[in-house]
Amino acid sequence: MDSRPGIERLEQLLRQLERSPAGGHVSLVGAGPGDPGLLTLRAMHRIMMAEVVLYDNLVGPEILALIPSRAERHYVGKKAAQHALPQDEVNAWLVRLAQSGKRVVRLKGGDPFIFGRGGEEMEALLAAAVPVEIVPGITAATGCAAFAGIPLTHRDWAQSVTFATGHLKSGVVDLDWVGLSRPQQTVVFYMGLSAAAGIADALITHGRAPETPVAVIYHGTRPDQQVLVATLETLAQTINAEGLKPPALLIVGEVVRLYRPN
Ligand SMILES: C[S@@+](CC[C@H](N)C(=O)[O-])C[C@H]1O[C@@H](n2cnc3c(N)ncnc32)[C@H](O)[C@@H]1O
User: Fold this and answer.
1) Which of 38, 161, 208, 252 could disulfide-link to 32, CB 3.0 to 4.6 Å?
2) Beta-carbon-side half-sphere exposure of residue 233 (alpha carbons within 13 Å)
3) Among candidate residues 25, 38, 34, 37, the one with its CA nearest the CA of residue 105
């Protein structure tokens, strides 16, 4: 089979990407949930052309390996409650680097605009009149669900999907529990592992059936991906029994019944 026409088209697409912003600028690039095959062509191009890369802990090693050796690279965090560098300092560093004329890539797990503080970084850059582009990435919810074979919507089971944070602020997950507890919908919790017991209790208290299935996906799309299935009632106990650690996603809803372990 001759794959040449496809390769030529790919080369043409990559040439078009050469028209990236000139001069000092920042690309906020989404690296996806881990599998390097989920990078977009634009993300890959920006990484390979970068002069400086600031990256987070959720960016996988195969993606970091694409950073050219001539480029400076800096780890800037973050794990829950353990920020390597305060957000204001990351913002100020991005501004300084771009103003010194560098092609800067701010590389983030998933999508920069989904629970990734990309909005805050964009605001800081725009306020300093620094050119900034956003390169979207596959967010953890869609990437991990796809690799686990769990459709987030399904005409029979879920007519909507919500992405929510399970990150505790002052010890409370402050969400619209009444809305999230309605049937026929999927709710995906990011950063929800340590608050899983509270999340399950709140959903049950507000009307979601205790037997509603929940998938917990650790390191989704990566070679060591793990998928556990529980119900709202057994969630906390299952997580404790398996000793799961972040990063993990919780997918709550009837669609989880479609999961088939390999
Ligand atoms: C600060 S948020 C960043 C989300 C990211 N911007 C995105 O769009 O996926 C970090 C959380 O995303 C989830 N996450 C990211 N990558 C993941 C992966 N490969 N597997 C499971 N969960 C992941 C976890 O809930 C993790 O605690």
Assistant:
1) 38
2) 5
3) 25
Indicate the pairing of strand 25-30 with strand 132-135. Answer: parallel
The residue to which tokens 């399950």 are assigned: 200
Instruction: Tell me which H or E stretch contains 226.
Output: strand 226-231
Q: Which of 35, 56, 102, 111 is catalytic?
A: 56
56 labelled catalytic: yes
Which amino acid is present at 108? K
The protein residue with its alpha carbon nearest to ligand 1, atom 7, reads 110
Q: Estimate the share of the chain in helix, then strand, then coil, as percent rounded to the nearest 5.
A: 35, 25, 45
CATH hierarchy code of domain 141-258: 3.30.950.10
200 Cβ neighbours under 8 A, 6+ residues apart: 214, 232, 233, 235, 236
Minimum-distance ligand 1 atom for the alpha carbon of 144: 20
Asked whether the whole model's pTM tops 0.90, one would answer: yes
Tokens of 126: 């725009």
Q: Could you tell me the residue ranges of all domains in the chain?
A: 4-138, 141-258
Task: Name residue, tokens 């390996």.
Answer: 65
State the greatest distance between any 2 C-alpha atoms of the chain, in Å, as a whole number.
60
| Atom 10 of ligand 1, residue of closest alpha carbon | 191
Residue among 112, 139, 100, 148 at smallest CA distance from 27: 112
**pLDDT digit string, tens, across residues 193-224:** 999 999 999 999 999 999 999 999 999 999 99
- The radius of gyration computed from the CA coordinates of the chain, to the nearest angstrom, equals 20
Q: What is the CATH code of the structural domain delimited by 4-138?
A: 3.40.1010.10
